[in-house]
Amino acid sequence: MMGKVLRDRRRKTRAYDNVTSFAVLAALLAGAPALAQQQTPPNEPQDQTDTTATPADPGITGSTAAQPEASPTEVVVTGTRITTGFNAPTPTTVIGEDQLQKNAQPNIFNAIAQLPSLQGSTGASTGTFSTSSGTQGLSSFSLRGLGPIRTLTLLDGQRVVGANVTGVPDISMFPQLLVKRVDVVTGGASASYGSDAVGGVVNFITDTRFEGFKANVQGGITNYGDDEQVLVQGAYGTALLDDRLHLIVSGEFDHEGGVGAGNFGTDLAGGRNWYRATTLLNTGVTDNGLPQFNYRDFAQPYQYALYGLINNGPLQGIAFDQNGTPYNFNYGSGGTPTGTGRVTNCYPGNSFCVGGDLSGAPGSGASLKSELERLNGFGRIGFDFAEDNEVYLTVNVAQVKTSNQPSPGYNRPNLTVQCANAFLPQLVRDRCAAAGITQFNFGTSNGSFPDPQVRTDRRQYRFVGGLKGKFDIGGSDWTYDAYYEHGITMSDIDVDDIVLQNRYVAATNAITLNGAVVCADPAARAAGCQPINIFGGFAPSAAALAYITPENGPFQHTKLTQDVASLNFSGAPVELWAGPLSVAFGAEYRREYYRVRADPYGAGVMDVSPNSPEYPADPLLNADQGSNWAAGNYKNGSGKYDVYEGFLEVNLPLFDSPSIGRANLNAAGRGTHYSTSGTVWAWKVGGTWDTPLEGLRLRAVTSRDVRAPNLSELFAAPTVTTVPNFTDPFRNRAVQIFQNTIGNPDLKPEIARNTEVGIVLSRPSWLPGFSLSLDYYNIKLDGVVSTLSPDQIVRFCFEGNQAFCGGFELNSPVQGGNFVNVQPFNLASWKTSGFDIEASYQWTQPLGLPGSFTVRALGTHVREFLVSAGIAGVATVDQAGANTGATPDWKWLAVQTYENDRFSLTLQERWFSDGVFGNQYVVCISDCPVSTGNNPTIDYNRMKGAFYLDIGGSYNVTKEVTTFFKVDNVFDHDPAPSPQTNTGLDVNPALYDTLGRIYRLGVRMRF
């Protein structure tokens, strides 16, 4: 019965509307003033400080969240909870619907992620090299490089159930056609919105009063003929019962073919030629005056080859071709085998040479982008039970499926082979006899094996019911918003064609018995073992493949639920000397829960019947601990926590005078009680000053922000990741290990101090249409939930710190017995600071031509990103400018658009600066200091940035129908190598475009 269950799991606006566009688009930069003017109520004067509204194209706008007085177009911009008029001190970048359309991306995530302040976001092009992470194809935002778990993503100001156990939602599941703007708050917002808003907030605002029909159909393909894209979207809205009943439905289908894996060696998919197997080669020597690490292209692993290589003993250097014929392996670097496992002139620290036979290197065999398919259905019904009061219900059902190949074949560098093996060529048997040996060490990429595939299937069901509206108390207008949300995510990860390691070992040990080739181990034979020939490119038989890579491969089934009950009020109870005192307050309850079940071979088989047809008992497998797969050893687990919180936000007008200008003070506080870690407080204090100088505004805010540990960090089912070429410094060799990552229920919330100071120049009369803002930010995060890497843990033990020596084994005689345990703690601290720059200029009727020309630019400079592990002996590392990560020194986005009533043309430039591999390295060629784990020596430490040009345009065929095109990465710019210290794809998709030039074409309709 259990087997069947496991198998089935695997198969299977009126006045109160606070999401309109007026105040946003009349904020800092000239964005979509044409739309803003259309939505401004007749005869209502515009706030005199928000003078950016001129005819322009709706797009990226830097917002101070300036609000008009309560009106039929009242707005909340995400930087605050208060709905009455004031200027919020927290910078907010706003992306309008028109700019999203001009980007013409199949997933709205791709357009938002281009913002310079978003650093380290994940998507379909990241995580493709991994088997066990569970984040393949997960589209999630990261602000300030602090990670997706420290960026709060909202839908209409409401939380969304996570797409995996980190609690991070998947933007692919949002109703994207109905999004009319996206607010990106680039500052701490925990006091206003709660936990996770350390880096900021990304809030998707949908059109809750849409009427009519609109559709979008587009297709795309890369210059290399892959990642074929088809996007079909449609939405319909209507008003009934004298405009009191509003009904909206939308549906979306998106298929992105992805960019598949290349081959062994250096061949990428589609004829891309930029992969050079760039590696940081480890000499293993730290004190000879030469650099420990050397930057080299075409690194060749010398422990294995495509179809097998003897890598130790007197026969070291004998390899096998596709036909199984022995030959002398061509080592790079002019190397020759020593018989001890090493190769002269090569790099023993991670077992690489340079050049030679690269045919067995698996690095280029990983997918560059996951194949992705998403379906989304959304419905909203709202009824005005009284004027300016609505009851509503929304339903969102979505599915996102992805697949990727993490690597080709099965890389096995440390196999022991008997000289009596039935498949071993006679020539090698004779050499064994002559050398007086009965066995040898052997490494192979198993190039004839099927390639592993990781498939994810995430299904989300989200229901929200709520009341919102306005009421009057003593002549004062108040708004309220109450809702209950229940969200469910069912996530399945299936891995195909992964090897059961002990079965593989048994199958490789073949003998001749009664004239037939069989597995040598009698117990393995009794359990169904079928022999395989690993000396050459001989594909295993169907029976052998079924034995070593059974159809019921690794899987993980996860259920996540989120329940949220929220009640918020906002109003202006008192009129003061400089304007109304504005107040917002509210309370929220939240419950997060997850449960994960994995296959018995990965998690342990004690709960499965010995007679299970899918998971039969096998003496070769570890029945209790699991971890039998070469990768994808998922574990069972569960956890939950409850959250109770309340907040108060106040806006106090300080003065309003023509002689000294206008200023306000904004303050907020939030108390939050977590069932797992107790009570924690968040607050913010800030303000803005519109100076007497025309168009000049100053703003500042400081806040205490929090992030509670998520379900994964607290209660994570242990995850096991295979590291095939881990450097063992004790024996100066590479070994295969398991990285065991486990949760920690004793974790406490992270505490951040976030400070921002800015200056804004908004459309002065001497340069109408021009806006400029400059903001300085400083974030200090303490008690960071983090872990050391396995390499750091082992290295610090090797260097004499005994505190790190109890959690690993690197010399186990047991097959698969090498491991390093990794667990999160509240030990680390981070500090980052820098500048944000936003500018816009809009020119109507340029050179006498009809229409408008708009120029916009956004830039972020990361001055520092200091990461301290909080452990004695572990140095602080500055990650700013390390282009192997996500925080380059400078990152820019610039857009130029000309448009008129008939057509538009847009140029977009994306650029980030040159950087380094890591700031911890000491660069030297000779006379090098002693290389340490904190400051290793290296001969080269430079990583080029990138510049990308995108071109797009549209043509209005009729008033209702528009055709459009888009070309991304016009110059087909190749990514810079991101060198690894292990075998892997040497690229950083978090920063660089790895796909090349992409063409898109489509049509939009609106009736």
TrEMBL record:
Principal localisation: membrane
Signal peptide as annotated in the record: 1-36
Pfam families tied to this protein: Plug, TonB_dep_Rec_b-barrel
Region described as Disordered: spans on this chain: 36-74
Cited InterPro entries: Beta-barrel_TonB, Beta-barrel_TonB_sf, Plug_dom, Plug_dom_sf, TonB-dep_rcpt-like, TonB_rcpt_CS
Motif (TonB C-terminal box): 990-1007
Keyword check for Signal: yes
Record keywords: Cell outer membrane, Membrane, Receptor, Signal, TonB box, Transmembrane, Transmembrane beta strand, Transport
Compartments, as annotated in UniProt: Cell outer membrane
Entry keyword Membrane: yes
Membrane topology per record: Multi-pass membrane protein
Annotated ranges, domain TonB-dependent receptor-like beta-barrel: 444-970
Low complexity biased stretches: 45-58
Residue stretches making up the TonB-dependent receptor plug domain: 87-201
Coiled-coil boundaries: none
Entries under PANTHER family matching the protein: PTHR47234, SECRETIN_TONB SHORT N-TERMINAL DOMAIN-CONTAINING PROTEIN
Family, as annotated: Belongs to the TonB-dependent receptor family.
Protein name: TonB-dependent receptor
Organism: Sphingomonas molluscorum
Taxonomic lineage: Bacteria, Pseudomonadati, Pseudomonadota, Alphaproteobacteria, Sphingomonadales
